[in-house]
Specification:
With 282 residues, this protein is an alpha/beta fold. Helices cover 40% and strands 13% of the residues.
Length: 282
């Protein structure tokens, strides 16, 4: 599968992020805990130079806990602040305020020396499409301050959200990068739903996912769909179709529909806690 997807609005979003960078003290970057490296936009490191950085391992409840810990250590060793969160259910959000203050400690001290008291920390929330930025902001703000949706590309323009006297957040549209040098990155992003399904061959995607899961989590498909796993991913896909009674006209198994069910089950956590990449692979 080849992934090339960079609509015009992404160029605009990147330019907007660049312009807003001078207004902020801290960059809060959300990544998907199931694929923390693949879901990081390499442009963000370049754009955020000289800013305090906080990485949130979002959807941590969908990834293996021991892997979450390994990734947290990995990012902290790189000099980032890092917190595991589950924005939908509010997990990990209580500690965020303190971590923001800690990350911006130097800036707050500098302000005090200049006699500037109580100026709120201004933080920009960034991340690729569908990584959960708006859900995170809403959960933290305790009200529907930013539009949310489970499709990439819901956030269109910039909006400031005042959390409290200490913190203001700037929500930004999600941006992908123009070209995936490594196609396995594109594949992981397709698995987690950060690339629009409409531009993908879902059956092919399902087959690729089966290859991954049979290699890294043998038995997971057998347990979930009560099927026998096979070496050929398309045979597995037919068995998933049979298990879920997916038929097309002519009584053939609808493998496209089965692939859609498979991807939905993974993305929603119904297949259990799965991680797509590990720090030791870096």
């Amino acid at each position: 599968m080849h992934f090339q997807w960079y609509p015009g609005h992404m160029t605009k979003a990147k330019r907007m992020m660049q312009e807003n960078m001078k207004l902020i003290d801290l960059v809060i970057e959300l990544v998907d805990a199931r694929a923390p490296l693949a879901s990081r936009n390499p442009d963000i490191d370049e754009l955020s130079r000289n800013k305090a950085r906080l990485i949130l391992l979002n959807k941590a409840d969908l990834a293996e806990e021991r892997r979450n810990e390994e990734w947290k250590d990995y990012f902290e060793n790189q000099g980032f602040f890092c917190v595991k969160v589950n924005s939908k259910k509010g997990g990990g959000l209580k500690s965020i305020q303190n971590v923001i203050q800690e990350a911006c400690k130097e800036k707050i001290l500098r302000d005090r020396k200049r006699g500037i008291l109580n100026r709120p920390v201004r933080a920009m929330v960034v991340g690729i499409p569908n990584v959960g930025k708006s859900t995170f902001i809403n959960s933290l703000a305790g009200k529907a301050a930013a539009k949310t949706g489970n499709k990439p590309g819901v956030t269109k323009g910039k909006q400031w959200i005042r959390l409290n006297k200490q913190v203001e957040l700037l929500d930004t549209p999600g941006i992908l990068w123009p070209k995936f040098e490594d196609q396995s990155v594109g594949l992981k992003l397709a698995f987690i739903g950060s690339i629009k399904d409409e531009i993908l061959n879902v059956e092919e995607l399902g087959a690729e996912f089966i290859r991954f899961i049979c290699r890294d989590y043998p038995g997971a498909l057998a347990d979930k769909y009560e099927i026998e796993e096979a070496e050929d991913p398309y045979i597995c896909l037919s068995r998933v179709a049979e298990s879920r009674h997916c038929l097309v006209k002519g009584n053939e198994w609808d493998t496209e529909k089965a692939a859609g069910i498979l991807m939905d089950d993974f993305r929603s956590g119904r297949m259990g806690r799965l991680t797509l990449e590990y720090p030791e692979q870096v």
